[in-house]
Amino acid sequence: MSASVTRLGIIGGSGLYELLDDPRYVEPETPYGPASAPIALGRLSGREVAFLPRHGASHEHPPHRVNYRANLWALDSLGVTRVIGVSAVGSLDPAIEPGTLVVPDQVVDRTHGRDGTYFDGPRVAHASFADPYCVAGRELAVDTVRSQGWPMRDAGTLVVIGGPRFSSRAESLWYQAQGWSIVGMTAMPEVALARELGLCYVPLCLVTDVDAGVAVGEGVTQEEVFAAFAANIARIRELLRDLVAKVGDGPDRACAALKPQPL
């Protein structure tokens, strides 16, 4: 199918490496090198879908080494106009328990050293980012999550840290004191790059743990995160099937209109 065909893109996080039945794989060339893995093309709920595992097919790319620019560019080149980003996050609020699905409406970037823009010269542009996520897409996601009976939060702030280590207790307590809701490692610059391309981006954040400054005991472990995601993988797949069936064709006009024009 040509790049003019509209597809829905799904970027899978830790633990979500396969999604489509009988996919075919493509490796679009980008100015930024290869994407994290070959992109699977297939159908889900009767829709053309492009699926990309963010960390690679075998989780070989840590969060600070993911080629975010190549990933979003590759999806855009395939005709993707709407992206659902699935990720594992930690809770900064004791009331947001593991197993909760959060659809955040704000993001705070605490990463460093990542290639976070397509406009780093000689072309320059400034993206509007007051509301980082697609408003209409978020509302649809919230309604879909509720219809499935998930414990969920329909808003909140996701703070993105550099990783790959988890937070210290002091860092976690500081994030909590700011009123931020959840903590992750991959939303930035992924969301900002989607905005620069005029893509509608919808976040689905599965809480897998309570962060170090909130929990008692030894703190967060990698094993805990992967086990929690694995325990919810069937529900995530079902959620994605339902959400994909409801998403409209074509770009979200509001998101497309926010694509900055180079100076």
UniProtKB/TrEMBL annotation:
Record key words, sorted: Glycosyltransferase, Purine salvage, Transferase
Annotated protein name in UniProt: Purine nucleoside phosphorylase
Sequence ranges assigned to domain Nucleoside phosphorylase in this UniProt record: 7-244
Residues binding substrate, per UniProt: M185, D209, V210, D211
Enzyme class: transferase
Organism: Stackebrandtia nassauensis (strain DSM 44728 / CIP 108903 / NRRL B-16338 / NBRC 102104 / LLR-40K-21)
Family from the record: Belongs to the PNP/MTAP phosphorylase family. MTAP subfamily.
E.C. designation(s): 2.4.2.1
Function: Purine nucleoside phosphorylase involved in purine salvage.
Binding site for phosphate: S14, R54, H55, S87, A88, T186
Site (Important for substrate specificity): S167, Q222
A Pfam family annotated for this UniProt entry: PNP_UDP_1
Known partners and oligomeric status: Homohexamer. Dimer of a homotrimer.
Any GO molecular function: S-methyl-5-thioadenosine phosphorylase activity
Miscellaneous comment in the UniProt entry for this protein: Although this enzyme belongs to the family of MTA phosphorylases based on sequence homology, it lacks several conserved amino acids in the substrate binding pocket that confer specificity towards MTA.
Pathway membership: Purine metabolism; purine nucleoside salvage
Presence of keyword Aminoacyl-tRNA synthetase: no
